[in-house]
Input
Amino acid sequence: MTQDYRQVRARIRSLEAETENLRREELQLILAEIRQRIREYGITQSQLFGPDLSDLVQYRHPDTGQTWNGVGRPPNWIRGQDRSRFLVK
Output
């Protein structure tokens, strides 16, 4: 049986829809298992995702709230100034 272009495209669309449905079903199972393990082991958000980026902030501009962790090139707002006044305590 020879198929034309439209028939093949229709089959592809059907398979893509089926693939997405299967992915969603499996995702629900995976998420349920992950949630169960998190509860079982008492895993915290910081253990799962690492430290909160705000924990890495060393300097903050008092007016704009811009931050810098002290690594790499300093941003313009702190360059050439006394950094102690921007230090996050």
